[in-house]
Amino acid sequence: MTNAHERASAAYQRSFGRDHAQAARAPGRVNLIGEHIDYCGGHVLPMAIDRDCVAVGGVHGERVRVYAADLHEWLECDPGELHDANRFEGWRAYAAGVLAFTFEAMRERPRGFEIVIASDVPLGAGLSSSAAFEVSLTTLLAGLMGQSLDAWEVARLCRRAEHEYARVPCGIMDQAIAAMARRGHAMLLDCETERVVGHMPMPSGDDVSLLVVDTRVRHAHSGGEYAARRAACEAAARALGEKNLCEARLAHLDALTQEWRAIARHVVSENQRTLAAAEAMKAGDWSGLGRLMNESHDSLRDDYRVSCAELDTVVDAARAAPGVWGARMTGGGFGGCAIVFAPAVAMPEIRERVTREFRARFARDCGTLYAHASAGAALIS
Ligand code: ADP
Ligand code: MG
User: Which CATH class is domain 208-370?
Assistant: First the structure.
């Protein structure tokens, strides 16, 4: 049993005085490459990590009762109130939106439930705790109702909950990888056609090859910067006469203002790098993949301007360590996490060095964890 599973089970027993009927898990993720282009119709290459959000529950009573064990907070309402997106705030908005849209997808009227959720994905760190939360909850509900929903339908309804209830204008990547990841693989996703292009193998065996470094700088994406970048991408695409900015040609970007040109240069080149990265993975060319990850970070730092001193410090320290294939920020940026890709044998020294240099610069510790490519959401038997 994972830590989150144990905590959710124990909290359920404590709260409701019985065992839960079903349990479901969904993983957090890192994005290997393809950053800030999911909403521009680009390709992304996320990998689910072995950190889960776990939802446990049963069908009981007339009320909806959801306990967020990590926050020690309850959501309680009548099933009929779930359709009103304006009633809910914070984590309750994610839960209510997912509940409402899952019932809609199952063509069932909302009814009473008892649910507990606990997560081993750190909240708000850029490892997609929100999608893990949403997808685990949908998977649990479908399980409790004896239904099986299509994985894409799950991803879309969870994204819709995040848009309409939590009011975060996210792309489809996080929900798609949480729903569809394959163990031992990263997933190449075409965000324009919403299609899985393929599952790309990570280095085989139990070797650790990915270090996640959490700067512990937290930034809410519902805030200004994410929306501002997204709006700039849409404006630049319009100016270029493209539906999606990813389809623009690098040679045509000169028509844009200096600010939009840099934004567009990141988007177009990042899409190309992501496709090249998938090819490198197919060929087992890990240093090639690492090089592309490095270029991705530099582009996010210099052109898209979503990095920060803490992320740059981690990336610089990692790249200076012997044996490193590549290092970059992952997720939305402005804090959150960086990933370091290297052979397992090199990892302890890299971890040591990154931790030391981070402490020397910021007088506090960063968090570190090793990540393995994990599978997408499922009921836990
Ligand atoms: P990220 O997805 O990168 O972790 P977000 O800001 O997108 O960051 O999502 C974090 C939010 O998702 C939290 O503030 C909370 O509202 C919700 N959330 C995620 N996991 C949980 C959980 N285990 N319990 C309650 N709420 C959660
Ligand atoms: Mg999120």
Answer: alpha beta
